[in-house]
Fold each of these.
Amino acid sequence: MTDDLPKRYTWLELVEMSLTMTEDFVRARHEAENHLAERYHESFEKALEDVEAVFERTEALRSLSSESGQELLISGYLQTLRNMCRPTVSEDDFKNLSDTGTVSASKFSDIGLSQSALGYLERNLNRDIFSWLDADTAPTDSERHAAAVAVAALAAEQKTKTLMRGSSSKRQEQAVREALIARCGLKSVASKSFELLSNGPGKGELFDRETLVAGTKADVALGLYDGRIMCLECKVSNSEVNSFKQLNHEAVDKVKKWAGSFGKQCVSGVVIQGCFKAANLVSAQDDGAYLFCSSNLTPLIDFINGTKSE
């Protein structure tokens, strides 16, 4: 077994890495502006249509707790209704706070569950937007339109941002896998959870999807050619503030967990993309995480290839 390890960067190199990744992020976001605008518009139009449907079937929310409200839940309008709350409520919070334990449309055919759901929603409707509810009068056309636009804009923003985060992360992870197969000769094999090194990926094997390693999810797990394993987290951050949580908390905690479970038999690192504060990169590296940039995977490729026998 070799003691070769990936490159550790100097403070100045990490500062330059941070600047380069931020520049790459800004350039990519500018290039994607038209696409994001189109997706936002599509989401807005759909959300506006859904809000109008809720208004039509509940007398502009004045009869939400009626049979029409239950029909809306069964028809899949819960997300729209959650966006009408003050503040908006997540799926997990709704399950607990409404005492329903579910967001499944089919479950609301149960009258008890639907009444609990509608009772919670009605209590928490955003009366700053739906001001006519306190006056117990029907909204004017302008009030109704303004409220519908406000909710639709909020829903479209949430959906677009979720899409941006999810698609960036998936693209990053897929790009890493493709590079490892093409440039390192790794063989993609079925993923499986493992606690023991002997049950992990063999030499030259790459698990085809994320997996639990010693009880902790790894985005990428592979077998180095010298018998060690390597676990990688893939992190995309759109702000330096967010980067601390993703890198220094989530990823570093996993690196420490894998080091505690496998010692020197496991090499752990993080593939990063986006905006990361240089100080956070320094701290993560000091805590044992090897760092790799999505925009330049050559150091990762060279390390893996370096574990091959001469």
Amino acid sequence: MPMINVAFLLLIFFLMTAVIAPLDPVRIDPPEADGSAEAAGDVVLFVEREGTLWRDGQRRTSLGPLSGLSVELRVARDLDGAILARVLADAQQAGAITVQLVVARPRE
């Protein structure tokens, strides 16, 4: 079997077995901060500038149960602080273990 056939078979294999990450339900421009820790949560919540909440790709009016879960929070850069405080308090009341605020690295 010529090497080009093997290369194409490997290419097809890797394309077929690759896991494609789902797209974010909304486009969020996160705030910037220094740091190198990677966020990893069981649940990803998106909060738009107006306070609209997204979970599991669907618009929500409440967080729902978060008992024993780690939450990754992605908020808009210009989100009002009062809305952020409300979302954090709601996550605590819903039973979230930890809430990680996702930020972007500053552009150099």
Amino acid sequence: MVYTTYLLKGLPVLDGMGYIRGDTLHPDRVLDFWVLGLITRGKMHLQIDREYALLTTGNYYLLPPHVRHRGTEPADFDVIYLHFTIQGEQLTTPPKPDQLALPVFGHVPTELNYPALYAFLKKAADFRMLSPEQLSIQVAAILSQLSIVQQYAESAADPARTLAYGVMDYLRKHFSLNTCSSDLPAALGYSYGHLARLFRKQFGISIHQHLLQLRIDAATEQLLMGRSIKETARLVGFQDYHYFLKVFKKRKGVSPGELQQRSQTLAERE
């Protein structure tokens, strides 16, 4: 189901945060600030304006300011809440990938432990170890994480975007192998030409160029850790040592040897 989505702009200002163990009916009210709630246990029946959802562990809700919301049934739940102010407006078109956009109901990323993050931030805030600006950055990060997860979820309804993401995932996991144009079709079940068109449309870069970038980024880390140039080229997927030197110099502006020498020089100066 597609819920009302809001485009958030700028850096949020945190007004308060807390943790509630609720076993009652959520109040019928209108607020003049935003509320983000992360359900950590139980279930919650919530209506925002005319939209309703049964929220369970792993869901979130976003209460916009000046919009009526209420619980529709008594419930037993635990929720982390953040109160904040930020510029926002209701979206009438699908959000762009670089926009911070959130539906009023959605899913929380399973990879992240928000109860632990909340406990850390609350303690740091109570002990005055984080400035208001630093807390705003933390809230912005949480909002961005949730926005990304919703985009992933929405891509499931878009076959073209799903395939483009599939190519990206394959490259991320297999860039160090001797990947060739037959590997992607075999893994994803579509022709290389079709996958290449979808990938370029979604990410604005060719499959080959992105593969090279992944390899060069990995090579940079290996070189800075002191690994030899030839061994690095082999580990990140370059079968041709001289081609590796050429690509690295073009993308980094320095040769692998110059990169290592620069790092060594800086270490000696310190």
Amino acid sequence: MPTRNRAAGEPTRPTQSTPPIQPTPVTEPASPPAHVRPTTPATPPRWMTHAPLVAVVWAFGYGALRLVWALGGAPDLPPLGEDLLLVSGWGIVGLCALAAIVVLGLPLTTGRLTTGRLTTGHLTTGLALTGLRRATGRSSGANGPILRSGRLRALGWFLVGLGWSVSAAATAAAALLLVDLVGLLFFTTTWVDNAPGALSRAGCVLGALAVGATVLTHQRRLRGGCLTCGRHIRAKSPGRAEVRAPSWARTAAYVAVLGCMTRFGAQAVVGFGPEGHPLRVNAVSGLAFLVGAAVAGTVLPLALVHRFGRVWPRWTLPLAGRRVPRWLVLGPAFVISAGMTVYFGAGLVQMIADPASMTGDSGLPPAFFWVAVPAYLAWGTGIGVAALSYRVRTRPRCRACGC
């Protein structure tokens, strides 16, 4: 029966017993199997969206400049009269044309990079698709023209190979940039005289890097790898980095040390004075150059394959036991390896093709160059191979795919 509230004098509703509310059980989402990897992230790194535009601008802008020079307006650039080696004149014009074909053609095989907003990478895709529609009259979908996927994939891998060839050839053509950088680093007098040619070589290398970055992006998409780290999404997780370097990496490191010792031995035979040095240097710059070369030829390659390259040794008291930043070792290793391999590889090819041109006005015997140049090449190649192993063994887990 209804009862009255004594304070208000009003009847109250009869009370009913309600069952208690049972909490809904929360189930944890099932974790994916160990062999299932996260898919490729939808948002690519920022450099991937800007590299195609840089490559297109370089191909047309630098190509137009080289076309004017090839038609008869080339200046006399020291130290050799031409700024580029191996590929100059109409050859570099052809490389720029091939670079444009590669950069504009690769989006046809993989589609544009999806970033949720208009980016510089959409420009090359739009230009490529518009040109293809006008040339063939075919429509295109979201990721490229409607063609057979097998043909697209084959075309994509062909353009990837062509793009890497163009990037390597442009880098080799600017091999003298290593001399410009050494002269600038050690305050020699060569970089002042070579400044116009150095700017042209730097532009050539910039284009080679832009083309290489664009090719790397589409290569990762073709093979189904992560856009950030490049690892295959179905590959097994590397887990903890390997501690010991493989035998082939240690062999390459000691080959680099042997190349350095051979180079210094050849210099000891002809002398370390200014007349025996390829650069015009004073005493302080010459000593700094020798010390830097010795460190780059002994400490650096050994750090790539031994523990002190990953963990600071005990004698570095403030840093002892801490992890060495990987790019503190990898950065100089890649720069030195690329510079030496390209410069002295091109020099060795030129020596074989024209033996009379190796001595120049240096006054050194030909035997010196036949010893020093291959030693430099072994030095740079050994550091590069050891650096590749160091990069794999020390790479952190990718934040994008979890690899």
